[in-house]
Amino acid sequence: MSDAHKEEHQSGIRTPKQLIAAVIAGFLVPIICIALLVEYASNGPKVGAGSEAQSPAAIEARIQPVADQGFTLKDVNAPKQLQTGEQVYKTTCVACHGTGAAGAPKLGDAAAWSARLAAGYDTVLGYALHGLNAMPPKGGNPDLDDVEVARAVVYMANQSGAKFKEPEVPAAKPAAPAAAAAPAVPAAPTAPAAAAPTAAAPVAAAAPAASDVGKKLYDSACMACHAAGIAGAPKFGDKAAWADRIKQGVATLDEHAIKGFQGKTGVMPPKGGAQASDDDVKAAVAYMIAAVK
């Protein structure tokens, strides 16, 4: 065999040092490859240990009460937060001005508003505050502040071709100075206390009857539509108009009155646009039902 063929078949490891190096490399290379793969796999997002899931901020977010999400606690003693004109329109005015019921000019209808706007801002505001024809004062919502009504008038008028200025909130009146202390006057001798009566007077007046509460809410809000049958509302005392509705059950009527209703038979805003409690609305429903029985 030639020397060239012998060199081709000879091993690359010729010395003990080369053998040791080859053995070490055989161990280290796989280990290094495994370490690199682990490092590559561990660079992604971690869940649980080694991540931010156990940080104080993440834990606080998880245990936060669900009831706190999307709600802001209100201080009942804080000053009233006045609504914008658009908010007042959507909660009170839309029942008539959104449908044109009872001749109310629809929002955005410049032709219907033109004659009214020609009378001037003060006249239009006076109608909104004190009522006109089928429209009750403040649209049937006595809880509205005059400024809120004015904002609603400006919103609807400006959406219909006017250029009224946004009403300003009147400045709060300064508190009256305390009255000067009057000089001390010797107290007159008091007469002997009369004997207490045997029967104590009642501490508080009896709560108003449900029918009285219902009538009060009807007179201030519901009659705006139910007195004249506006927007498909069944007229007060009209047995034929109420018959089919009563068949639905009182619970359904209460729900429609509280949450609002829109269908083929008519349109009604929630609570008739009034800021009343659910119980008061139910009392008003009962009052109107009683009138047709």
Structure notes:
- Residues 178-183 and 191-206 have low confidence and may be disordered.
- It is elongated, with a radius of gyration of 40 Å.
- It is mostly helical.
- It folds into three domains: 12-65, no CATH class; 85-158, Cytochrome c-like domain (Cytochrome Bc1 Complex, Chain D, domain 2, Orthogonal Bundle); 210-290, Cytochrome c-like domain (Cytochrome Bc1 Complex, Chain D, domain 2).
- The N and C termini lie far apart (127 Å).
- The protein is built from eleven helices and two strands.
- It has a two-stranded antiparallel sheet.
Summarize the structure.
The protein is mainly alpha-helical. The protein has eleven helices and two strands.
Order of SSEs, N→C? Answer: HHHHHHHHHHEEH
Unreliable spans are 178-183, 191-206
Task: Return the CATH class of the largest domain.
Answer: Mainly Alpha
Note the overall shape.
elongated
The assembly state of the depicted protein chains is: single chain
Count of alpha/pi helices: 11
Order the strands across the largest sheet as they lie in space: 1-2
Count every beta strand, where a strand is a DSSP E run of 2 or more residues.
Answer: 2
Provide the structure class.
mainly alpha
Provide the β-strand percentage band.
Answer: under 5%
Give the total of domains: 3
CATH superfamily of the largest domain: Cytochrome c-like domain
